[in-house]
Design goal:
The chain is an all-alpha fold and about 110 residues long. The chain is built from 4 helices and no strands.
Length: about 110
């Protein structure tokens, strides 16, 4: 394996936030973000993958909770009307719990 990367909590959080920002800014598609995560995972040394997985799941769970809190807060505002876009125009994103991620990351590390 050529280049390896840091798996500190801060490094993982920074990677996730950059990827989220790239989607928000339309700089990357969902597919490009997925490929970026796959490339990143391959750079993590196999011995470091358990801690990288732990940090990644923690950052994703906290990010998801933050987005839910923002969404819930907005819907409670009296002067904030929610206008739903037709589902066919929205990208398909799924909220997931820890178990599917653990299985995906374990499978991809083999």
């Amino acid at each position: 394996m050529g280049q390896e990367i840091s798996v500190s909590y801060q490094a993982v959080k920074s990677k996730v936030y950059r990827l989220i920002d790239s989607l928000v800014e339309d700089a990357k598609t969902q597919g490009e973000v997925q490929e970026s995560v796959k490339r990143w995972w391959k750079l993590v040394h196999p011995a470091d993958r358990p801690i990288a997985r732990k940090y990644l799941l923690s950052v994703l769970a906290k990010s998801n909770a933050t987005l839910n809190a923002i969404s819930d807060g907005l819907t409670e505002l009296q002067d904030f009307d929610v206008h739903r876009s037709p589902a066919e125009h929205l990208p398909r994103l799924h909220a997931i719990d820890e178990d599917p991620w653990q299985h995906r990351l374990k499978a991809s590390s083999m």
